[in-house]
Design brief:
The complex is a heterodimer of chains A (345) and B (211). With 345 residues, chain A is α+β, with helices and mostly antiparallel strands. Among the domains of chain A are: 116 residues, Jelly Rolls (Sandwich), CATH 2.60.120; 94 residues, no CATH class. Chain A is 58% helix and 13% strand. The longest helix of chain A is centred in the N-terminal third of the chain and has 25 residues. By secondary structure, chain B is α+β, with helices and mostly antiparallel strands. In chain B, the strands form 3 sheets. Chain B has a 4-stranded antiparallel sheet. A 4-stranded antiparallel sheet of chain B has the order 2-7-4-5. Chain B has a 3-stranded antiparallel sheet with strand order 9-11-10. In chain B, β4 and β5 form a beta hairpin. Classes of the chains: A alpha+beta (345), B alpha+beta (211). At the A-B interface, α1, α2, α3, α4 and α5 of A face α1, α2 and α4 of B.
Chain lengths: 345, 211
């Protein structure tokens, strides 16, 4: 049980640096919390209001008291142990919510102070930072992760300074993943090695140099394709659909036509047009029997049948994927297995 | 926990899948229901593991506070199931689940402490004191460290120290080499040894502002 305690003026409830597990509420009297400002070393005195908690953070976080609690006028406080406080708080969620707000303000403030003092990498602008993370994963042949990061880059910064390079890297990640598998193949983007050696840990902006020099700027078709992919990730499905359709109709670069045909099927599924999705992928498979996205196409066909209530057909498709991709760690295999399990449940 | 009502917020990730990337803008935070999540950060040219989170732990919570970019990358270490929340449904979740609210409260106290400690390093003006204070911080926060003598061994790298000190790697290396010449520090590929942690403590104290 939390108990009321009496303190005389001039006494100290706890000292800065003490390790203790008590949390207090001031009932009556006057108490001051004394500590030094981190930045200036100046002494600060905060007075506690009646009804206010103190000693909460250090007790909950189990770290030393950050201030000295000095009694200015005879005071009555109620002392809780951490577990008493927890029980009390759980039945008073409003109190926790109020504390959450106070703490989140403090956290926001200290976070801002810290980032103002950071000089190097933390100061990097988020656009460049995101790109650099993608590069790191690509260089280390973590293709799936590189794919995710460059995909996000293109979603957030479709017209960004590094968008062309990001699109190119996304493609390298995708094709390396398909060709070699995760963690395998030659190390991609060797041209960035020299840059990394030079100054990644230095202060100067490192990334943008690459975009121009390599001489493989993205074609208009490729750019249209990645714009469409970006729309898709923003869940603007009909817009993405019509863009992919245009790429297919223009029929200029076979690679992007094939990719767009696959994406069209995915759009149809996402728009809930299951019959059309099945028809579309059936046609795709007969035109491109070795399409790199074959297993995904089969998966969407299975999903479409499932949505239509045709469980038997759905299961046939999932089983086809399992037979086609026997590697149990492969994403397609895992996905199909999971779908099959759900179907049987 | 009474979380069935929140099943519409459930998301699943495959092993190895990124949940969010460092620098990505974020307005969601997560509560792990099953599987483990690894938080990593690319420092220098190394992917550094910051933490491995278990079911019922939370991550991405800074997004509740502000629109700052993510400070680390979250990767599913197993097949992972999470509940995903945002600022809009935050209050509803907390009011209905005081257990989670309490957990978040504790997480905030830890974050505030960590950030304050970090701020103490950054406010030192003398770069040598900053580097020394990073070791003091590591000494305070690493639970399984041998404290029987004055000597301390840290599984850390120059890049790590530079990151915490908010300085670039070259300057940090210079300072560490200076400490090596003074025989206060030894640097190994996988660890850094501080010969006398109390000596560093006195040094940092003498450099901190007092009024």
């Amino acid at each position: 049980m939390p108990k009321p305690l009496q303190y005389r003026a001039g006494s100290v409830i706890y000292f800065q640096g003490d390790v203790a597990d008590k949390i207090y509420i001031l009932q009556s009297g006057k108490i001051s919390l004394n500590y030094q400002d981190i930045e200036t070393g100046q002494d600060i005195h905060d007075s506690v209001q009646a009804g206010e908690f103190f000693g909460v953070k250090s007790a909950l976080g189990r770290y030393p008291r950050e201030e000295t609690a000095l009694v200015l006028q005879d005071a009555t406080v109620i002392a809780f142990t951490v577990s008493e406080f927890e029980q009390f708080a759980i039945s008073n969620s409003r109190i926790i919510l109020k504390m959450l707000k106070v703490f989140s303000n403090q956290l926001r403030r200290i976070h801002k102070q810290v980032s103002n003092l950071m000089q190097n990498e933390e100061q990097q602008n988020p656009e460049q930072g995101l790109f650099r993370i993608g590069e790191y994963y690509l260089k280390n042949r973590q293709y799936a992760q590189a794919k995710y990061v460059f995909g996000r880059y293109l979603t957030y910064y479709p017209a960004g300074k590094l968008a062309m390079q990001a699109a190119k890297n996304l493609e390298i990640a995708e094709s390396s993943l398909a060709r070699y598998g995760e963690g395998k193949g030659p190390a991609p983007i060797p041209e960035s090695e020299s840059r990394a050696g030079g100054g990644l840990s230095g202060t100067g902006p490192a990334a943008p140099a690459a975009a121009g020099g390599s001489g493989s700027a993205l074609s208009a078709v490729a750019k249209a394709y990645y714009d469409a992919v970006s729309l898709l990730t923003q869940e603007k499905i009909p817009q993405a659909f019509s863009m992919f359709k245009k790429i297919v109709e223009m029929n200029q670069e076979p690679e992007y036509v094939a990719k767009s045909i696959y994406e069209l099927g995915r759009c149809l599924y996402l728009m809930g047009k299951y019959d059309e999705c099945i028809k579309h992928f059936t046609a795709m498979i007969s035109t491109y029997p070795r399409h790199p996205e074959l297993s995904n196409a089969l998966y969407f066909m299975g999903q479409s049948y499932e949505k239509k209530g045709d469980k038997d057909r759905a299961s046939t498709f999932y089983k086809k994927i399992l037979a086609m991709v026997p590697d149990e760690d492969d994403a397609a295999h895992i996905k199909a297995k999971k779908a099959l399990k759900l179907l049987e449940a | 926990m009474e979380l069935d009502a929140f099943s519409r917020f459930a998301r699943t990730y495959q092993k190895g899948e990124i949940i969010f990337s460092e620098y990505e803008p974020g307005d969601t935070f997560y509560l792990i229901q099953s599987g483990r999540v690894q938080l990593v950060k690319i420092i220098g040219n190394i992917e550094k593991i910051l933490d491995i989170l278990q079911p019922s732990e939370m991550f991405g919570e800074m997004a509740i506070l502000e629109d700052s970019p993510r400070s680390a990358t979250a990767i599913a270490l197993d097949p992972v199931k999470v509940l995903e929340f945002n600022r809009a449904n935050f209050e509803v979740l907390m009011m209905g689940n005081p257990q989670i609210a309490l957990k978040l409260l504790k997480l905030f106290t830890k974050r505030i402490y960590d950030q304050k400690r970090r701020f103490m390093i950054l406010t030192l003006e003398d770069p040598q004191a900053k580097v020394a204070d990073v070791f003091l911080m590591l000494d305070e926060t690493q639970p399984n460290i041998d404290k029987t003598t004055d000597q301390r061994e840290f599984k850390t790298t120059v890049e790590d120290i530079a990151h915490w000190a908010g300085m670039n790697a070259d300057q940090t290396r210079d300072i560490l080499n200076h400490f090596v010449n003074q025989r206060r520090v030894e640097i190994f590929p996988d660890r850094i040894v501080v010969k006398n942690i109390n000596d560093f403590q006195r040094f940092v104290n003498s450099r901190r502002k007092k009024t």
